[in-house]
Batch of 3 targets.
Target 1
Amino acid sequence: MIQNFEQTDRRILKFPAVPPCEAISPETLLNSLINLSQNICNYKSELFSTQRKNARQTIRQIGLLLLFFEETRDLRLTLTDSVVLCFSELHLAFQKVRFLLEDCTREGAKLWILIKCKAVSTQFRLLIRAIATALDVLPLGLIDVGVEVKELVELAGKQARNAKVEVDPEDEWALQQVFSVLDHFEKGIEPDSSLMKRVLDHLEIRNWNDCNKEIKFLEEQIGFQYSDCDEREAPFLSSLLGLMNYCRGVIFETWNHRNNKSDARHSIEALSCINPEDFRCPISLELMTDPVTVSTGQTYDRSSIQRWLKAGNMTCPKTGERLASSDLVPNTTLRKLIQQFCTDVGVCASNSGSQSRDIARTISPGSPAAAEEMKFLSRFLARRLVFGSSEQKTKAAYEIRFLAKSNIFNRSCLIEAGTVLPLINLLSSSFERYAQEIAISALLKLSKHPCGKKEIIESGGLKPILAVLQRGLSLEAKQMAAAIIFYLASVKAYRKLIGETPEVVPTLVELIKDGTTCGKKNGVVAIFGLLLHSGNHQMVIASGTIPLLMDIFSSSDNDELIADSLAVLAAIAESVDGTLAILQTSALSTIPRILRSSPSRTAREYSVTVLLSLCKNGGAEAISILAKDQSLMSSLYLLLTDGSSYGSSKARALIKLLHKFHEASSSRMIASAGPCERPVHVW
């Protein structure tokens, strides 16, 4: 068997080399050795930021052997079993060399290879010795190649035997500097950035993009640690990640934002009100996969609350009450609802909490050094937002957006450092489209944190955010402003405050009308959040929300948007005024159609909720129209068996109501017919 060398999923410094099988033909083995050697020799043109000497001498030795392999192939020589055995050993060693060189030049892995420089040097030493051993036992006299070629093989063997494989002194120096910098951070001392700049220059990390590649690699490695349930190196990796975040924000002042302009738009979030807040863990803010209830009655994702308790906290994270015990009771009903929701929207329940890593573990810093690095960086970015140039302010906002994207501890540090108010000021003073998008995106990330919501409101951020929602320089900025409104509306007191601003709902309605699918969803969900305060219902109705929702039902093929819109309609229909407004539309014919045809169970359940409210608040006229729909009852009975407990209860209530109407109608018909006359028979 010959190894495929184009793997992309191999973990770094793991060498899954496969020995050639015993039945392999000598010709196939030789050709594979040649291809493998050529592949290794191609690394001569690659940049090695570390291990330069070790890599060069290894490549040089294999280059000499490549000439020997090609000569053997060209002469079509017959290879004895002993030669084939030696070639097999060389093939196995070359595979590992190929993997090692690939790792030494892997994008984003420069710092990690430096950290592992002793282990990497040891690996080079072992592989060169393996090559030397194979050449020592190679019966070169049995291979009829030219004298010069044999001399090259002997030279390669001699070099392999005498090779001095050790850590480069410059690599050793750089390694010591990294440890010194981390030690300074751990002690709460900000190190001299010029020293770290010298290390980065040694590693050929010369700009913002190079540094960002290192960050992405370290994040990936931390993810691997947790997914493999082997977290031994996770704290140290977290320290390195914090260091590179610090370097990206502090050392690399210049950044090519033209290459990153699409990032803000690619990160625009499409929210959903059918993923209600009680589906999200209050700690991680992500969809729960294993919900459990604590003694205060609050529900959390098991992994999140276990980390909270493991950190020594014996209070409820949401209420602050002291926990009577650390017992965790599985919430099986909620778990089933979440699993069904994931099925409806096409999300894998086991992975829904995070795309690349579990955000729950970011509640606390990965290490003491990582905590201090983040605090120093947060204070630096806050100063940049206040005192920097326009370019520096935009760059600081860009860094904040990156840092707060999926890390709860980072969010708390940035908020505590005072970044919210200057971000709001940047939002108000931005006359350039990109700067406004970055500022509103950064605020969106921070608004997910409870303290972020409070800071935004108390810093007077609502008015500037509404200004972006109304007159934003791009549709993307408006969509992100709507998303912030949704997160702010998750706080009970803020729903009323936002609703008291008369232009909010009409502006959201305009976004629903003219926005992209993402914009429509964010507008719909923001309105859903505001409807949780009963005082906002009249404004939502008066702003023309209902006709727009009906248009979505007839024009959109996005199941999630339709389900979101039905959730809003269900909230409106809870009041008599809302029901009367809905009955002015074609809802009684449109919603049963959705109930019959929608592939989303959530949409079908909200459809039943709307119809039930229309019947209860709309009286006999609404019920009579639905009673004429002969297919409605079968859809309701289907939901009784396939629906959640919530959906089944709504379907059951509507079935009872329709049955009562049919019975009452039958009674009235009998009563109106009067007493039956019996026929008289004449004889």
Target 2
Amino acid sequence: MASSSPNKLTTTNHLRHVESMASFPSGAGKIPHLNAVILGEDLASEENDLVYPSHDFSRQALVPSPHKYLEMYKRSIEDPAGFWSDIALTEFYWKQRWGDQVYSENLDVNKGKIKIEWFKGGITNICYNCIDRNIDAGLGDKIALYWESNEPGFDAHLTYSQLLHQVCQLANYLKSIGVRKGDAVVVYLPMLLELPITMLACARIGAVHSVVFAGFSSESLAQRIVDCKPKVVITCNAVKRGPKTIHLKDIVDTALIESAKNGVSIDVCLTYENQSAMERESTKWQEGRDMWWQDVVPKYPTTCEVEWVDAEDPLFLLYTSGSTGKPKGVLHTTGGYMVYTATTFKYAFDYKESDIYWCTADCGWITGHSYVTYGPMLNGATVVVYEGAPNHPDSGRCWDIVDKYKVTIFYTAPTLVRSLMRDGDEYVTRYSRKSLRVLGSVGEPINPSAWRWFFNLVGGSRCPISDTWWQTETGGFMITPLPGAWPQKPGSATFPFFGVQPVIVDEKGNEIDGECSGYLCVKGSWPGAFRTLYGDHERYETTYFRPFPGYYFTGDGCSRDKDGYHWLTGRVDDVINVSGHRIGTAEVESALVSHPQCAEAAVVGVEHEVKGQGIYAFVTIVEGVCYSEELRKSLILAVRNQIGAFAAPDKIHWAPSLPKTRSGKIMRRILRKIASRQLDELGDTSTLAEPGVVDQLIELADR
């Protein structure tokens, strides 16, 4: 069992992989690298593999140089107890301090039960730290949340003081219907202000929120209700997403019928009337169970006592759905998650008090938990919440919102970047975007060509990109650039965050030094790590810790280059084995998208009688370009030239668009079924933004 004493031997070995970056200067001085540009001075071209921060940006940055990063990183690895307790005690409120041991861990299944604990015995409350502490610091009149409707021209905002009042009213209502510390609350809401309000209200009284993305089907929602057995379900009657109206209450009604059949009945369904989408008179209603939010919540007092909780008490459940089997209920606890999300937000975005921050993610995903609600508000930030589709009424909506609220930090997914890139530069250039100073990317590796478009066009070549790698399970950023600290390489997640020890191992679990490729694992725990899978600790151990005992196994492949930069290559189950060559799907996709006429690509593996597996590529081409045999050959040649003949796609499948969830995630499970012609096994397509895309792809299968 490891405790808070550092392991000097492994620490020394690990630091070798980050110390290589000490040879890079900060923005000041001459650049010792031919293929480089300085932030704000030039555009990044395909020849530029290093983008340096400018002297002005580095000078004002929280981490202004490689030297400062190394100093902080070294301490975080050699003295994690001291590093994290200093941050926890100086930047957060604790009703009671923890004991002598800052953390306790065992990551080796061969040495007993997997256990991770941080600040155990410390008493705190994350809602208090998000709101009350900021009001006490004089931020009561600062805007906490700007809300932008799906329809242009409709908006709202809340100051931190107003937010506290609304959170307390809902918290008091929840207490009145019997919700107590440790009880689960299922939340099925779109991106209304009521979503972060609900999360914070649950946290205030010690209840465990389980937010379900309001795009999941009734069956998926019912599964989650049956698993966590909530005291109440909170939803709204409907939402408009682009031009479409989605009847959320109908989905909840069907889910509650299904959950009741499985022995879990819900007594209260609190429903917010979203008038812009649907009048209450048109909403189906079950008397005695269903309650209108507007009829009950505003009647409760605007003050509510805080339920003080242990750092290791549960904060939320978030279910991740695999392509098969029961969803996994990822459980995050309070104290370590609070400290980690706030600290990663602060440093990875170089946060300043004057920043206006917009993350396009939905709170139904971990990004919305950590970097819409908790991380930003723990720093007293002003956050933009957008209800609608990023291309409604047209593909300039994001930049319209950026200009309207003077957004300074913009955090989004590569899928959205590529989609907007496909729609044309004119939707970007008609807006100023001058307020932007930091960009961010989340969800999957961003291919270099999309990175350059994001950097050159959206950011005007003056904004560093925080290309973050992390997972639902990690709670917060694990490998990420720190703006101003060191040069970036387009497409690389760069170096580990403080306290994180990424290692690359071979198939036998041996750590590989230097320039290499392999399986990405993490050595040692970090405060934001998830503690278990709800009700299934055995699955937690089997999935994440048994593959490589002594390490957390991420499930991702990774390469480390000669300079120590990390390049994520996608899920290892997204690795295609062609004639003995292991090829990451992300690598092939990046090569395809580098073609000037390819807007987006998704690659899957299919059975091949000779090679074992073949490469099947779904390709969306640039607007105005026609499908042709010449283009097909040109795309294949692009992959051959960039990776090698062994990686050439066996099939190019023309795709007007790709099947994506409303959060922008490509549904590769569906693509695999189409590629292998298993059309009777497509499964649930209800979470797709455009379900009709599937039929289009099937029709184009043989073109």
Target 3
Amino acid sequence: MAPYSILVSWMQKALVVRQYHVASVLCQCAKVAMSHFYIHYDLLEKNINVKTVYGYLDDSANQEFKWGKTYLHLQPDCVAMQDATAQMAMLQFISSELLKVAVPSTVHCDHLIEAQAGGEKDQCQAKDINPEVYNFLATAGAKYGVSFWRPGSGIIYQIILENYAYPGVLLIGADSHTPNGGGLGGICIGVGVADAVDIMAGIPWELKCPKVTGVKLTGSLSGWTSPKDVILKVAGILTVKSGTGAIMEYHRPGVDSISCTDVATICNMSAEIGATTSVFPFNHRMKNLAEEFKDHLVPDPGCQYDQVIEINLNELLKPHINEPFTLYLAHPVAEVGTVAKKEGCCTNSSYEDMGDVGGNVLVNACGPCIGQWDRKDIKKGEKNIIVTCYNRNFTEIVTALAISGTQPRSKDDKKFKLEDTYQHPPKDSSGQRVDMSPTSQHLQLLEPFDKWDGKDLEDLQILIKVKGKCTTDHISALKFCGHLVNINNLLIGATNTENDKANSVRNAVTQEFGSVPDTAHYYKKHGIRWVVIGDENYGEALEPRHLGGRAIITKSFARIHETNLKKQGLLPLTFADPSDYNKIHPVDKLTIQGLKDSALGKPQKCVIRHPNRTILLNHAFNETQIEGFHTGSALNRMKELQQ
């Protein structure tokens, strides 16, 4: 009995353990050449019927299944990256000395465009500011077999939906909103750079065996109720804690009333509650070759879920607008002004909620959604409301609608051609050169980090004890994200518990307060190893490792960033008792013991030894992640695998 969701990977053993027959959605047999869409559904059906080779599992015969504990080893169909994550991903891949990516991979230029004056002007400005990065990504793509979508192509997850998603694909994206591809019944999962590089290098992708939350939809959407309101309802029920580590599977009868783009919106926004991904079953809106095999792309009757939510779409849901960073804090449209005055929050929504209010249509990019604003119309600090539709509709869509009715013409009455922003990698790249200056201030080739000496970590200085949320918005900006030395924005938005200030920490040696990056640089220069104490849903990897960090100890991690930490040789540890967070003070020095046994695959526990107290910690390393910690980074591990 299988929820359509998901992980076909689970196959044979999952049958015995949980009654999942494992829906075919993740079958490796659904081989597809990106841009060609040749899908072997017949082989997919054969594998399901004989119940032998279960799809994307790298080694189904020896795969262990313990939900929420063991790791699945999978072979995805393809990888997608945006221009911010792609910089470090391509630099790591280059350092591996491999000749070509092992799976179809794409780069999409959408993150480095800053929203300021409007679409055309902002796009031109981005090209003027970032030519070095764009040229690097284009030439590296041509060299290593990666497709390249130039600035102006559109947002990564919409391009995936329109060009690469199909029922049953397992698509991995180095962008948290990759689940948008679920609009066409795909299993599209956001990952960190380290995971993306592993897949590109042909290394099986590791995913902690997820639980499945079923969302039963009844009735149908009507009136001003939008798909956004559905996911806001789900988010209000679950919150991030309940959503993390689960796959959200929406099922009938209500799903048949929701369009592809609306389904994509729900899947996209599900990422905000920590879900691994979201998926909808095959329906009449996905008709293509998949229709013949649709019985394998829906849940089995009577299938079992770890949790079930039921939402009646006929019951009027009031249109809501949600706050930034926190999806489950949503407000009825009528209350937004009052909330903004009280809390100083900004909000986002869709075209449906805004109506025709003369909004400025900005460039097709992720700018406003990720904080890339440069507004000139208000003074800094002045309270205001930003209501954006990022990104539910595109200028391309409007153009397509115009074309469907009549052939557009330019001012001189000549037919025009839409700009071609796609670059396919050449068949022969032997003579291709990667455009990257050795003196670049934006890009820097990587060197492996130092390896672990096999000993416990003693006398670790606390760099910062973070208070409250510490998402990617609080950790890293986009400037210099391909240059570890110059990025210099480590935890600059995180609040320090010692003084309730952002980017202000005490230097334990000089006793002076300074920025987080400057203090970390000081510690690195003087050989002082350090640790970060985090709160809930924390993450970050490369810069802390580069600046001498050895461990991150938190109440909980974001899934993507926990994996990044492991693969770059940092210890992601959680408090066995979350209240122990309160026992640690910013001026403390910590010793972490028990690492040797843990790294040998023995107890999954280690401890902080501290005067007057011992604090128990958890970690969840598997064999290959332990190897990554031994070698110091994913880069070292890839080099050793090649040897």
